[in-house]
Structures are given as structure tokens and as C-alpha cells.
């Protein structure tokens, strides 16, 4: 029996033994306060009343210490609290500024003096070390979000995640080695993850956020997602009316020019082959950003009914550089509304009902945002997403809790040519430039419905138990309305209706979409059949049981198990149902029983949430293409070949869900003056990744052996003995520091020393990576784009006299990978033809990620000066990005040409000299291959030079 199998069996036994015992003190939207009260001799004090109040809590909450002096105050909204400890005849103790974090427990132990009644007030530490926590988690509080998040571009919850340790990438980040589609995004505990792409679903006003939490590894059984679990808690109003207005602005006048690149004779994007140029020319690449936001909240009934609302109007514009072919692209503009409304109601004590509505909408002309699209060939995108959420939190008795949530998140997206459907676009295959019109139009709708409920019960038996059981049901749907070429071939002067007909396998009575391609000097008209709309869907059901057991006061054991099942509904062939048992086990030991020195560890299995691209792969409709070449002598289109077929991929009936086995071990220590440091080793091993596989090349017959239809499988290439083609792994040592040593200083820092390797990093079954063996298998395993051996992050703020606040954001890494690839053409590096339809794709001719970008660093600064008048606060804000004006290359052209070769050591041969050919050393020019592409190894983009932003802020 393997170690993990033994662990699984043991965890299941432990979970089953603990089921009758008892239920955890937090929910997706709350935290908890725990602790022990003792007298001046260290003996437990039963009967002490602990009462907490907070601007984020309606009314007050109370608990009474038990026979061991322990108390628990569960389901507390995150924020800062005042806690009062009272027992008749003893000095009362008050602790101010007790910080409650989302999904974490704050431990406050109190010693009370046996003396006459009197009140002693103590200011609590605000850095929280949760002695019961085994999850790796980062929480960003309101003041940190206000002062340590610099600039309007970063004032989104998605970009805040970049401050967390172990996180890389962009708005949809890669979290401790997971790809960008393995995260879950929750707003106020409601799952808003896009069911199609499995990326973030909603935007919202940044000033509406109360707290952002990201769990990276070591999750309790309550949570799915093998990547990051992101939870954004929005503000709720309060007993006093309050609000903000914030506006940030910049344009090209706030941008410095890029540095000059000296002439090299080698063109690059934005450059010229014969003269010097700027890496970033603000006159050719103008930018603009205007970001006003407004929030208002307050009471309808004090301590009973609060409201909160937020509005944001993003308005941005960016222009890609002009290509070396002289094409002037259009300016990508983004204009939208991000709106939020929220009501919080406590009809009776300890029972709270919260309703939230989020509306996010945008129109994006030139959404292609590419240097290879002329202005008239641009696209326009419309996107809309809404969330309706309802949450019920109840403390039914002192030992029994209940949490229920329901959410509905509908969304729509459409994209098409700015010219409108009809104009036939042209793609120049000689230089990749597109003109005349955009060559794709598509539209889709989707929704996610969620219902989750859990209950918690406390029990004292063989120690203290907080046992939680619950269920989570998600129903998702994706309707593909259309996705085709928008060009109408009947608008062409030399159109022949016979081309779109059963004579070329098109459906009778159907219509065709059209696009033009220029290859060499040949003009090709490509037709595709237009298809009807269809829908796919899924139903995901999960049940979990989790026990938080304290056999002794300083030891916490978190044992749980989660079972998930996913049933799919396709529009043709349908994937088999997915199901997975997921045991989780964590342990935390508070060495001195005072939440200052904690050893923690975790081991568990987490199944991936799979998106609706999986059942979409099997959708059955007429698809394919047919090419017609223009005869210049007759001005007519003649048959150039193609294939029209009934689409709909197949699924391996043994297809299994992908999951990761994760484990960690670490130590957290509270250090000098309200600071903590955590050092954790983390490991993540991915299993059962899947891709579509279509066949293999037979070296004997020099022919491709095709499957009847491409197949989604966990083992592509198994028919020719390939195993373990799909895999990824991550391991790293992560150091995190949180420090608030003084009221005027707040710092969050991390150092991640890690390695991320794999054979794919995209969402599953979305590319041609493993369609054919061996072309799309060789060298595909290697370093992934999130691999940096070392990453250092520092974010925080410093308050100065006269109401000045300086925010700082510092980032450094020692270089991320780039890969050496080859563009497939009529022949591969191994000497045989690519399969039909795969020309233009890329294969690796060195192992993935074999080369490194230079070290990268960036420093951003923000200075805010506040003025206070009669309880109102007005602020002036200035930001500077890339303060030291670095222009490090951020992307390299790794395409070595259509028929590059490798030397005997496996490294790509570049430049002059000799290579091995036919067993002999011959000059490179005689090796029967083309020379390396002139632009190979050249930078294609750089870090943007120094730029600025101005803002104003008003608070009441």
C-alpha cells in the first residue's frame, strides 16, 4: 500500500470516528474569537462573560467561559473589535483593536486580577497568529488596501492577489504551481467563478472591499479548488453614515519616454531594421485611465438594518505599437460600470441575513489589443456579469451554529468586428497582419447557481471538538450562441453560390462564414459552415465533514473528508461522471500555548473544479473548412481542398478527474513588536490532467495513424506506449512576514524559493499540445511560466506627521523562463510532414523553459496628503510606477524559424559554424535547413518606463 493510500484510509477512519462528536467556528464570510480566561494564579475562571462590539457587527455578541475557562465567539464579521471580560467582584478587562480575520480564529487569553471591581483597558496586538490554522492564507485588511495598493490599475481584488506569497501571473494568477483556471473566486462567500473559463467572473468597486483573503494550500474539507481560493468580503455600512469618493487619472502626459534601442539591423515589434527607436514611445502608444468611484453606507435601523452601495466607472485606453509592416492598430478602450448594493439585517439577536447584488458591465472597442491588427480590422466586445447572493448566519445555541448561502451569477459575452458582420477580413500569412475586418464573431451566455449549507456543533469529549458538516451544490450552464467567421461571402464580386453547397460537403440550405488569407502571392477564400446554438451544463454536488479537535489546549487536529461528484450534460457525446474522495489532515501545535510559536503541517487531496469546456468538446455539429484559391487569370475561386465533417470529440470512458496531492510543514513565530514570520515548505503534485489526443505518426509507413475521432484522455499517446505525458509539480520554501510594530507602520513581505515544472500550463483540452505523437510530446515537459527560483515582495505603508502616508510596493525575481519553439510548416525538424490543418502551430525544440529572462524588479510609490475638516477627510494622491525607470525585457521571441535544428547536445544551434549532418561535421548553410530567424532571441516587449498618476479622495 502506498503512503498516500495509507494516509487516505487513516483519514477516512478518523473522520468517521469523529462524525458523532461534534461542529468549526467560522464560515466563508466570518472569523472567530477564542481564548482562555484565568485568575492571577493561572487557574481557569469559569462564568466570565465575554462581550464584543465592532463597527462591522450589528449589536453585540456574548459568550460565557466554561469550566476550563475557555470561550468561543463564532461567526464574527472581519474587522476590529472591542472585547470586555466581566465577572462580578473581579476587575473587568477590556481589549481594544482585537483583529478578526476572515476564516481564521484570533486567540486572546486573559488574566483577571482577584480584586475590587475596576476596569483595565489594554490595546491588543493587531498581527494575528491563529494557533489552530493549518491553511496557508493571506488576508489583506482595509487600511492595507487603501494605502499599500498603488495606482488605479492595481486597485482590483484580482491584482491585490499578486502581493501574496507563492502567487505569480496576472489578473487570473498561478497559485503555488496551479494554472490560472484552477482557482475559485468568491464574493461575500458566493462562488462567482466563470463556469466556462474557470477564471474570475465579476469586477467591483475597489472601495467596496472590506477584506481580501486568498487560501493557497492546506484547505479544510469545506473548500474545493486545487489552486487559490479567493474570497472578497464587501463592506456592510454601519450605525453611522459614511462614504468615499475616489478618482485616479493618468494619460500620456504622465508617461516618460522609453529608452533608445540602438540600430542592430534586426527588427522587433515597435522597432525598425535600420534605425534607432524607442522601446516605448508614448506618442505612438498613448495610454489613458480615468477611474472614479463612489461608496455610501449607513443605518436604516441602528444595530438591525444597514445598507451599502458602491459605483465605479472605469475608463481606460491603450494603443499597441505600430508593427514593422507599418500597420497602425486601433486603441483599446474599456468603459464600463461596476455597481454593488448590499443589505444586512439582524431581525433577532445572533441571526443575520445578508443580501448582495453585484452588476459588472463593459464595452471594449479594439478588444484584440494587438499590434498585428489594422484599425479597421478591430473587434468590439460586450461583457456583462451579475451576482445575486443571500447569506444566513445563525448562532442557534451556545454550541450550535448554522450557515446557509445561495447565489445566482448569470453572465454574457459577445465579440465581433467593429465594421459589423458582412465585410470579409484578410489575414496576411506572410507577416501575420490582419486588415479589412475582424475575422471572428461569437456570443455566449452562462450562469452558475450555488446552494451551500453547513452546521457546526461544539462538544467536549476527549478534549474539545468543533465539528462541521455541510454540502455544496453548483449548477452551471454554457450556451454557445455562435462562433464563426463574420464575413459574408455573397458580398464578394466574384462569389459563386456553388462554393457553399453540398458539392463541397456543406449542409444543404446552410450558410457559410468567410475569411480571406494571403499565402505568398496566392489569395485563399476560406469558408466555414455556420452552426446552430447549443448548450452544455454540469451539476456538481459535494459533501464534507471536518473536525477541529483540541485533545489538549495547545494542540489542534483538523481532520476532514470531502466527496464530490460532477454529472455533465453535453450536446453530443458526454464525459463520464467525475467523483472523488478527498481526505484532508492538518495539525497545529502552539508550543507555549499563547499563540506566539506554532508548528503546523498539512496533507491532503484536492480535486480540480473543471470548466464547461470539457462537455463543450463533445458538442456535435457540422464543422471544418474548405479553401478556394483565386485564379488570377479568370478571377474565379477554384477548389484548394478542405474537410467538412460532423464534429464532436469523444471521451475515454475511463476518464478521471484531475486532482493534486498537497502537503506542507512550517513554523510561525511572533517576533519583535507586533510582527510575525512564517516559514513553510510546500509541495503540490498534479495527477490525472487530461487533453485531447488524435493519433500518432508511424515512422515505418511515414503516415499518420488517426483515431476515429479525437479523444479526451488522461493518457494521450498510450496507444504507442507513452505514459505520464501530462504532469506538473511544484515545491517551494515560502517565507512570509507581517509587521505592524508601530501604529504608523504596516508591512507585508515574502520570499518564495520554488520550482514549478510541468508539461502544460493552459486550461485543459484547449490547445493542440498533445494531439499527435511525437510532434506535440517532445520537450513539452519543463519549467512553467510561473517558475522563478526566487521571488521577493514587499508591500506596506508608513504614516508621517501632518497626515502624510507613503505607500511602497517592491517586487523582484531572478528571471522567469522562455522557450525555444519552431513553427510547423510542411516538414518538421525530424523530417516528416505535419498532419493536415496543423501548419502554423509551434513545437518545442528545446525543453520547455530552457532559457531565462533577466532579473526583474519594480518599485512603485504612492504619497497621500490628507486634510481633516469637521470630521471630513480630503486627500491628494500622487503615484509613481517603476520609480527607478528600469526597462527590463519581459518577453523574448523564442520562435527559431520554420526548420531550425538542434546540435548533438540537444541545444539549439545558432549562428555560423558547423553542425552534425549525416554523421559528418558540415557548415551550417549545407545542413539542409533554413538559418535561424533573424529576430530569434530578441526582446519583443519591455517593462514600461516610469509613469505617474494623480488622484483625489474624500471620506466622511
How does the SSE layout of this entry go?
Layout: H1 3-18, E1 31-38, E2 49-53, E3 61-64, E4 70-76, E5 79-86, E6 92-100, E7 105-107, E8 110-111, E9 119-123, E10 136-140, H2 142-147, H3 157-160, E11 167-168, E12 174-175, E13 184-187, E14 190-191, E15 209-217, E16 229-234, E17 242-251, E18 260-261, E19 277-278, E20 287-301, E21 305-312, E22 315-318, E23 332-348, E24 351-365, E25 379-397, E26 400-417, E27 426-428, E28 433-435, E29 441-460, E30 464-484, E31 512-519, E32 522-529, E33 534-552, E34 555-569, E35 578-590, E36 597-607, H4 613-616, E37 622-631, E38 636-646, E39 650-651, E40 659-671, E41 675-687, E42 691-698, E43 703-713, E44 728-739, E45 745-758, E46 772-773, E47 782-783, E48 790-800, E49 804-813, E50 817-818, E51 821-823, E52 842-844, E53 851-852, E54 856-869, E55 872-881, E56 889-892, E57 914-917, E58 920-923, E59 939-942, E60 947-955
Parallel strand pairs: 1-7, 1-8, 6-9, 13-16, 27-31, 39-43, 42-46
Antiparallel strand pairs: 1-4, 2-3, 2-5, 5-6, 10-15, 11-12, 13-14, 15-16, 17-20, 17-60, 18-19, 20-21, 20-22, 21-23, 22-23, 23-24, 24-25, 25-26, 26-29, 27-28, 29-30, 30-33, 31-32, 32-37, 33-34, 34-35, 35-36, 36-40, 37-38, 40-41, 41-44, 42-43, 44-45, 45-47, 45-48, 48-49, 49-54, 50-53, 51-52, 54-55, ...
